[in-house]
Amino acid sequence: MTLPPLSAETIFYIGNFPVTNTLVNSALTAVGFIIFGLVIKLAVGSQKNKAPRGVLNFFESILEVLLGYFDRVTRDRKKSLRFLPLVGSLFLFILISNWIGLLPGIGSIGLWEIKEGVREFIPLFRPANTDLNLTLAMAVLVVVTSHVLGIAAIGFFKYANKFIKLGDLYKAIIHPSPVGIMTAVIEFFVGLLEVVSEVAKMVSLSLRLFGNVFAGEVLLTVMASLMAYLVPLPFMGLELLVGIVQATVFAMLTLVYLTIATTEVHEHNSKTHKEELDLLEPTPTV
Amino acid sequence: MIILQELFIHTAHAAAEGGNSPDIATMFGLNLKLFIAQLINFGIVFLVLWKWVFTPVTRALQARTKKIEDSLQAAETVTKEKEEFKKWKTANMAEARKEAAEIVEKSRGEAEVVRQELLAKAKTEQEKLLADGHTRLEQEQAQLLASARGQLAELVVSATEKILREKITDKKDVELAKEALSAIQ
């Protein structure tokens, strides 16, 4: 039994660019999506002003379900439609990449190579999401896009004030009150923590997806090594489920990040000093 | 057991590699070129789905939703108009029926008057014609009687003359008288 390594294996080089087995899989997935895109585009063109049929009808039903879930998070159909291209693409790409990993030949067709005197099996195909490069690329794209859309939606200064709360600090100094200044200082440091959380978002998004799919791949390899027939079947079913769950989690978190980034934060200073004091006072109990 | 043992050794080996070397990026195979390549791969998928799938399909969905909403609204308007027309029709039909009944009643009355007039006129004319007929008949009868009387007188005269010319016997006299009387009759 050869367990898959953490890093994707290089199959060949183009110049000094290493082509890994996960890259092959993600490229094949991309080709599949290009074909799918063309089919849908042609179907939309040919079925204009008609009731949808076949693949278009099926895809429309999927889209309706997706938009229904999106609406629950965004609570606004316009926002859902705005975020659909990115979030929908992530969901479909991750889902199909995960499920492609369960096809026969993925991880089992490969070459035997001798590395450092040891004969090693190098699979030609490996699930795309078992490569941290891909999951990290998607996570970085998501976080960067959420910042760009956030700035576009509420303006640079208001958006920046979410992280570096100099505005609140300045207002607290202009209208000095001990509670106000203390709150502003605390919020300033909370804002700095928000900066750290942005990095954490990328790390958690990428490692969660990578870890789950990689663990599934290891699990299937182990189970297939125990017994080639029947035993891996329930685990393959489980992996189908994990594939859809991970795609949903990634997409939904992305949607949450995008929604939060494009929502304006109500300023604490809009509350009166008395309201703040009322909030700090303990609630009288009977 | 052997498999599980190998798995633990593999994991421990990986962890040890990570522990010895601070380069986690190498352990996970992080590579800027691969990172960019994977980003481009996803970027292609994103663009394809955005331009060829999501945009046209959502546009078609929205257009269809609008069409259905418009159709429903139009259907509602038509139903409302139909209801209004029905109400209008019911109200107007009742009025029209009432008017028609009045017209028919009025016409019937007028027709009756005209009929009565015509009947009276016809009766008068009939009576007049009858009276005229009677008068003419009486006149003709009188004329006929007068003419018959004249003819009788002439006949009596001619019979008398005849009798007087011939030899008159009692028997002959009676015969002549009978002849004259039969002629009269």
Q: How would you briefly describe this protein structure?
A:
With 286 residues, chain A is mainly alpha-helical. Chain A is 68% helix and 7% strand.
Describe the structure.
- The complex is a heterodimer of chains A (286) and B (185).
- Chain A has 286 residues and is mainly α.
- Chain A has one domain.
- Chain A is built from nine helices and four strands.
- Chain A has helices at 21-46, 54-74, 77-100, 132-154, 156-160, 166-174, 178-226, 232-261, 273-280; strands at residues 10-14, 17-20, 110-115, 118-123.
- In chain A, strand 3 (110-115) and strand 4 form a beta hairpin.
- In chain A, helix 2 (54-74) crosses helix 3 (77-100), helix 3 (77-100) packs antiparallel against helix 8 (232-261) and helix 4 runs antiparallel to helix 7.
- The longest helix of chain A is centred in the C-terminal third of the chain and has 49 residues, at 178-226.
- Chain A starts with 9 loop residues before the first strand and ends in a 6-residue tail after the last helix.
- Chain B is mainly α.
- Chain B has one domain.
- Chain B contains four helices and no strands.
- Chain B has helices spanning 2-20, 24-27, 32-165, 170-184.
- The longest helix of chain B is centred in the middle third of the chain and has 134 residues, at 32-165.
- The model of chain B has no long low-confidence stretch (mean pLDDT 84).
- Classes of the chains: A mainly alpha (286), B mainly alpha (185).
- The interface between A and B is large, with 54 and 37 residues.
